[in-house]
Structure prediction request, 341 residues.
Amino acid sequence: MKLAIRSLFFLLACSGLHAAHAQLEKRDVHIAVGGKVALYYLPLTITERLGYFKDEGLNVRISDFAGGTRSLEAVVGGSADVVAGSYEHTINMQSRKIPFQAFVLSGAAPQISVAISSKLAATYKSPKDLKGLKVGVSAPGSSTNMVINVLLAKGGLKPTDVAIIGIGAGANVISAVDQGKVDVISQTDPAVTILEKDGKVKVIAETRTPEGTVRLFGGPMPAASLYAPVEFIQKNPNTVQALTNATVRALLWMQEATPQQILATVPEEYTLGNKAMYLFAYNNVKTAYSKDGLFSEAGAKTTLKALAASNPKLKPEEIRLAETYTNEFAKKALAKYAKKK
Prediction:
């Protein structure tokens, strides 16, 4: 009899769980990301590895590309549903009359550093000294490309005054520097920290911290986020809410986690063979993660200003900034999980 009662409770619990997830319009979600090994995308990795997507009833598949523009192309082309990438792309896409919207923020700062080869460091005095050099970014048109454009503008240079080379992320960045393929890198950690500590590069600008971000951009600069075509969000609001719930839950977990817990969660290959250096890099950028998944109007305005400064074709007056992001889903996620933090 007791066994029968336990079985009944189990079935009721399972049916209740099924009912809670049955409202999802789309259980199988394909996320495209550019350079998942980078600390820039640590919240995505944490969300995946701790099973938070599954807890929301989602079957999430993540495909890794060479850079943010490549992952965006996958969604535009219809081979993926959602991009894990920089918020700025929603503004760029709106300027092209292709409406995208970011729905949860994971990066409160870009975490991108610009570093020059140690062999050339003595000749560098200001951004104008970058003229004619080869700059390694994750992919042309990506956030790493945008950051170098902003730095070039501070030296009175145009993007065409340097040679932009796509070198991907992670170990590829280290190889590109070691092989002399690039003179300068605009890249994320842990690769930059490893090269810096090995004495191979000197950092000349950084957005690893909110303070460094303000120095370069003049204000707060939202970075990594989950974003998708507006049509996808409108058709699948419950699915988008589930993605946001999982992400916000991971962000809250990260606020309490020790560096050792972070290290234990990420795949070993992400440490690029040096766990101590990975932890050092993580400590460099840990203040750059969003605490709550929310976008700020000030951050959106800084992004638009930076994009307009580096891309003369973008007309700020034509951008409906409020439509490029939403806090609707993150607020609901916070209501669900912040109390359980």
Remarks:
- Residues 1-19 have pLDDT under 50 and may be disordered.
- The two ends are 39 Å apart (CA to CA).
